[in-house]
Amino acid sequence: xxxxxxxKAQLETRLAQLQDxxxxxxxxxxxxxxxxxxxxxxxxxxxxxxxGMGLSGLQEIRMIEAALxxxxxxxxxFCAKCGAQIAEQRLDVLPFTPFCHSCAQ
Length: 105
Known about the structure:
- Helix content is 70%, strand content 0%.
- By secondary structure, the protein is an all-alpha fold.
- It has a domain at 4-76.
- It holds the Pfam family DksA-like_N.
- A zinc finger (dksA C4-type) spans 79-103.
């Protein structure tokens, strides 16, 4: 079983990575200075991809922050819905999950 301190460190590391990535995405989105319509259209397509990545990152950040809060409250590793212990293998794959396998389905 992975110690809670190790899980917390993994979550904090991933959170820092996501925050850094979102900062880079924001900087890229703010840096465009297209000269003509064709360049602007190409940049806009790229922006849509970056925005999607940003939204995905924000969602994961929220889930990690919630998991860190559950750790602080001593509730990490237990299903938020039924209260059962979440399988170690599930936490290995989704360390921020608030649900056991049964409740997640």
